[in-house]
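fold-stage: in
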Amino acid sequence: MTVLATARRAVETGPVCDACLGRLVADRSFGLTNAERGRSLRVAAALEDDVPVAEYEPDGECWVCEDESDRYEEWAERAAHALAEYEFDTYQTGTKVPPLLEENDRLLREDVGLDPDAGEPLKAELNREVGKRLGADTDAEVDFERPDVLVILDLATDELSVQVNSAFVYGRYRKLERDIPQTKWPCNDCGGTGRKRGAACDGCGGSGYRYDESVEQLTAPPVREAMDGEEAVFHGAGREDVDALMLESGRPFVLEVKEPRTRDVDPTALEREVNEFAEGKVEVEGLRLATHEMVERVKELDATKTYRMDVTFEEPVDAESFAAALEALDGATIHQDTPQRVTHRRADVTRTREVYDIDGELSDDHTATVEVHGEGGLYVKELVSSDDGRTEPSLAGLFGVPAEVTALDVLDVTGEDEPFARPEFFRGTDDA
């Protein structure tokens, strides 16, 4: 069937607007909007039939789209107004088309003898035409994968909704004081409510938290405030024990700011503000604006870790035996049952982990400092203590002398396949 025959049959079904007429054959020509395409078909058919164009003009509301095709400018203006308080570089539009209009689309194709999938559906045209006007109004780029903002048009209710996707800041943190968890730790006694039996919880003093501060609470507020977001969520590349320090190179993390109104922040200034806010308890460095992919890369990082431990022995240890024990552990494969201290929250399984390098020095015959570089997931406290034989081999097991870690510092967290230098995971780079 020729395009003109299709056009003639379409206008015979009732009032059909230029856009709906053009959408029927959108897959047969290029370079025109559907409205321009439909108008051209109308004029060409009239000329070929030697009749006034008015005979092919609709004499009322389009029965297919109910004149929604005339509202592109209106929808775009409403969307721009709804987004006025947000800063964004990328966007996408979506449309909820009522079942009746979708049925009209199908019936029109059926009436003119076309395949149901011929041309272009109303939803696709609305998304494109409103979208390109919105982009022009806001000087933003369309992004079909992960836009900063998503605008949804609901034709049935004549309402418009906005989804603002999160912004992300990547960096590394150092924890310089002990007894600070990585994230908020709800009180076990009251379940985080701050209340127990109608009164303030004795366990947390009514705060709802087991610890007064966390790395999250010491870093997230300035970032959330700078981006004027609703909430900031902390994502870390693993976590150190509450009583451990995180030193030297620091641990990778991402702060996710939900519903940010501002995205174009200065990472250098932000780094300074975070460090001032944390008052020396936590330090951050290398802050950069990141993409959402960085969250999974941080959380799934297969990292090696370097620890420094203060170790105490119950009985005297001589330097020769100490050196021999370290040599036995250097490069060893360690078999570890889940430590007793975490079996309440982790499955009791046996894991194997590698010790890449270990070194140490006796301070006296009862104390030592030990540094160990190990595979991610290696329980280093149990590598020292043996955890009642649940870790083999161990320092205590090799000595036959009970040993305990009295202080633990994390010195380095480095990915086996470090992704953090790749520009595609950061915003504001040439390759992002």
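fold-stage: in (second)
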Amino acid sequence: MDHVVWDDSMSVGVGILDTDHKRLLEMFNGLLKTGVSTKSKDDLIPLIEGLRDYTNVHFRREEAFMERHGFPDLETHKAAHRYFVDEVEKLAGELNGDHTMMLRIDLILLLKEWLIEHIQTTDKQYQPYLASEDAASAG
């Protein structure tokens, strides 16, 4: 799989949220760079920790923006966030196992799904509601 390059079509129109999403893209590309056949798990531990930090900070920030701007599908969006958190925790539990290649594949699939499906489709749904956020935070 080729690395994913950020472009404006991925933007949700809020600088801080785009920065968060770019960070996830960096994690994904870092995982792709190491490849699936790498036997060592040394790079997976900081990746899992980074994903935990990402979900803790980014999801709270994003949900606060949606709530403040009256996004009507907030609860469904929160459920999608909980799904991602649960998946990351499941994968973290697999760090002690012997199936490094499957763990890498599962991480790649999860991050790909998140980048393509969640950010580019689900997150785009709140974009019209948060359109004034960048202007408000810049002012």
